[in-house]
Amino acid sequence: MNKHLASNVEQAERQLVQQAARGEQSAQRVLFERYRDVAYRVAVRITGRNADAMDVVQDSFVKAFDKLDSYEGNAEFKTWLLRIVSNRALDLLRARKVRLALSLDLPDDDGQRKVVAVEQDETSPAAGLERQELVDRIQAAVEKLPVDQKTVFAMYASDEMTYGQIAEVLGIPLGTVMSRLYHARRKLHMLLADLNPDQREVAE
Amino acid sequence: MTRPTDTNEIEQMLRQIENLEDPPEHQLDAFAAQLDASPQWTASLAGRRPPVSPELAVATPDAPAWEATWERIASASTRGGRRLRMGVWQPLTAAACVAVLSLALRFTSGPLASAGPAEGWELSLATGVTVDELEVFGNTTTFVAYEGDFDDLSSTAMIWVLDAADDKGV
Prior knowledge:
The complex is a heterodimer of chains A (204) and B (170).
Chain A: H1 3-21, H2 25-47, H3 50-66, H4 77-105, H5 129-143, H6 147-157, H7 163-170, H8 174-191, H9 197-203
Helix pairs in contact in A: 1-2, 2-3, 2-4, 2-6, 3-4, 4-7, 6-8, 7-8
Chain B: H1 7-18, H2 25-37, H3 39-45, H4 63-77, E1 83-84, H5 89-109, E2 130-131, E3 140-146, E4 157-163
Parallel strand pairs in B: 1-2
Antiparallel strand pairs in B: 3-4
Helix pairs in contact in B: 2-3
């Protein structure tokens, strides 16, 4: 895309954001339709659950439209939105861990500790069982990543972000993005070592 | 290669990282630190997109699911020109209620009580107001009442602050 065209696109989006900030729902809807997929992909990688990811997307757009008057336009709307998405997803993750920890600590009426079943993730319709198993294995491995690596990986796996955009969303330097992403992918490689080479290559 | 210094070395390092070719840890750390410290290299690499296998993509929700989500977003985002953050009742209500009550007292007992419109304040109901935060002090009970139906958020809202009931006799 040449510079002139890129400039026009940026200007068009700025106008759209201004309209959305004024409460124009038609403009808000355009922004929602434009960025809902990438927001979902980031959210689902961080939370690991389809339902939670949908909640995160919904909450994030509500918050974004609510706070548009504070959006200064220094960053692209997309990166600003994804910052909200990643923060909201991490909040949900922390809250989930607290709930699980509290449940484990509370004894039942007999004084025995309750056994808390881990909620099963919803699975989307799969083209084939093998494909779905691979997806589930990958996500299970992602769940094991440290939070800082998981968020970088989530952004990377959305396949819509440059290194610079990831750095901007997460507020970390570019070199740190590359280092964390490398470590995340390396860790996944080890966690999925039992997959056949073709499957492992897909996961990385 | 210790710390990469030129374009070719940077590219070589990037390839090793992106292809998971296990560069030595100290080289990786040095590379990351050098990038972080160099606005020039940061700017030149910021637009680079890391290669991603298409199979890593996750299935996104279908159109009906998105439509339902949009409806909830639209409903939450717009409730007329006036939004009250119902999740923060107590901090929302106190200051506005105190202001309302103090104004009421001025008009009923203060110097403004006998003042005509030309001498006193001309009051009109505020519209398009968003109360973001309200602090309430003391042992008070607060609630918001609407002129019409309770669920009709387009009607006039009144914020009440009442002293909490003394429960000593209960």
